[in-house]
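Query form — protein Trichome birefringence-like C-terminal domain-containing protein

QUESTION: What is the three-dimensional structure of this chain?
INPUT:
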Amino acid sequence: MFVGDSLNRNQWESMVCLLHQSSNFTGRKSHEKSGSLVIFSIEEYNTTVEFYWAPFLVESNSDNPWRHSIKDRIIKPESIKNNGDDWKGVDYLIFNSYIWWMNTGYMKVLRGSFDVEPVEYDEIERPVAYSRVLKTWAKWVDENIDMKFTSVYFMSMSPTHIKSTDWDNPDGILCAKETLPMVNLSIPPPNVGTDHKLWGIAADVIQTMKVPVNYINITAMSEYRKDAHTSVYTTRQGQLMTAEQQADPATYADCIHWCLPGLPDTWNELLYTHIILHS
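ANSWER: The structure tokens for Trichome birefringence-like C-terminal domain-containing protein are given below.
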């Protein structure tokens, strides 16, 4: 089960495609949605590959998987939706949480309940809120996961390529029309919207946990891939972009999510390697 935001869903989609590509399934397969959960089932192998929408891992006002485009995103840092009951009992749990933190330097933290109007909140610095959330997540993992039956993974942050000046292309338009990765690997990766404070917070929290968590670093390799985003070849609200939208990449290019086949396949190869090594 992949748990997290749309980048983890991107990786889940990659995993489902890789399974289709590499295996000769003759039995029944199914795809169903149930609340925050999307389930791909392969009955022949008694296997499911699942994705659970939880962009902040903790409870928030953005937990509806189909209606989450909320301007004022508010989190409840010490509460996990339904006590994380939907995450229990799987063999492999793959978590992430990053891109939904990047709208602002401050996070709105609930004071009280979402059920009481008006909803009241405090605003605290992003790293402070991120640390509180990951400590809540870590506590849940330590209290609910039996390491003899479940392996836990945390994917590091997936970078964005929104400012073409970050890779010395002042005439570029976001990531649109980028056809090559950054090829000079002798220099450090560019600063492309990666908050390394959050990377370090995740690493530090994981080090304190009783249950071993494999922190899979996809960040540096992904920072070089300015060419790998869906750009204008994507959907908006479930619809393919129109020709007019594609002609306006400055407004419509998606430089957050990734093409498939593409970079998330490599993330899954790393994940698969970790699974095999620790089996």
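ADDITIONAL NOTE: The chain has one domain: 2-277.
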